[in-house]
Amino acid sequence: MDYDFNKIISKFDLEGEVLSCESYGEGHINQTYLAEVKKGEEVKRYIVQKINHKLFTNVPALMNNIKQVTEFNRQKILSRGGNPDRESLSLVYTKDGNTFYYDSESDGYFRIYKFIENAIAYQVVEKPEHFYQSAVAFGNFANLLAEFDASGLYEVIPDFHNTEKRFKDFCESVRLDKMGRAKTVEKEIEFVMQRKEYCGRIVSLLRSGQMPTKVTHNDTKLNNVMLDEKTGEPVAVIDLDTIMPGSICYDFGDSIRFGCNPAVEDEKDLSKVNLSLELFEAYAKGYLGALKNSVTKIEKDNLAFGAILMTYECGMRFLADYLDSDVYFRRKREGQNLDRARTQFKLVEDMEKLLPKMQEIINKY
Fold it and tell me: How far apart (Å, rounded) are the C-alpha atoms in residues 255 and 328?
């Protein structure tokens, strides 16, 4: 669909002539465009996004999350003498002070960010240094927000990492067995059942207040980090649509889950699936170095376990979806979600064996 970007951009607090607004990036959730706006002799660039309001059904609450976090970050960055327009996502507000504009003609919710110049987001890890720098970026992000009261954030995806509920949902999928597949995956089902005690560990610590509730990004992939084009060092963390209250063990653990396994997500040859301690150490060094003193002892004691938990949870969700007839995770072939589950479970087994070494590395940094 074509949008009237001249009209849409005119609703925001920007002055100048819109030279262009073209499709940009490789995101799959929102529609993203790069706009060039000329004022006098100066041309500035902006990211314009049409928010997927079928997925993010409460756009005002979503955008209030982003406003709270980015404004908090900007003040922190300013206080230390940094450049908030470069080191943080920066919203451009509408002329009446809102975080987004609703266009009734296209039934579209639009937002604008200042474009971060001279920085790049890599889609894949081209060298180990990128993985380390992404750890520094997400560690910096967590450190900036360590004092932020996350309890006021809207839960974009309710119970996203509530592993107790995820386990109950899994048991229901096994009970219903919609496709009659349970008998063919008894070994995998038993794998999940044997580790039931994992599910309550972090949610209980959060619930009791023993572990602090903090801002979690919940999509800690390399392509959500902007790295400086020249130095390769982290500039800013982007894509804040899934920021929610939770534990930093979730973000750390999910980074390890997908970043420290050299095999593809649906690898059928499970001998290729393993945890790289070298990559684990690189990430832990970068993440903890950036967190500095904002990390608590209870968090340090559970970061390595967080990797096991996030991998176990992901495998459980893949297996439940296979039992439910592949309705949630997109698949390109029959049995792909089962292969994804088996890959996660093999990685869990590897992590369980290496947990003492993983914890040693955490303690080292």
Answer: 21
Distance CA 349, CA 333 (A): 26
CA 157 to CA 167: how far, in whole Å? 17
Portion of the chain with pLDDT greater than 70, in percent: 100
* Cα–Cα distance, 241 to 86 (Å, whole number): 19
d(C-alpha 201, C-alpha 94), whole Å: 43
Residues 296-320: what's their mean pLDDT?
A: 98
Give Cα separations from 76 to 81, 83, 140, 143, 148 (angstroms). Answer: 9, 10, 11, 10, 11
Residue 96 structure tokens: 């009446």
CA distances from 260 to 7, 115, 315, 350 (A): 46, 31, 16, 11
Buried b (16+ CB within 10 A) or exposed e, 206-222: beeeebbbbbbbbbbbb
pLDDT in tens, 177-192: 999 999 999 999 999 9
| Partner residues linked to 246 by β-bridges | 214
String of DSSP letters for 307-321: HHHHHHHHHHHHHHH
**What amino acid is encoded at 57 in this protein?**
T
Q: CA-to-CA distance for 19 and 3, rounded, in angstroms? A: 15
Half-sphere exposure of 312 (CA within 13 A, CB side): 31
Mean of pLDDT values over 148-157: 94
Angle at Cα 142 formed by Cα 138 and Cα 148, nearest 5°? Answer: 150
Lookup: tokens for 181: 């597949």
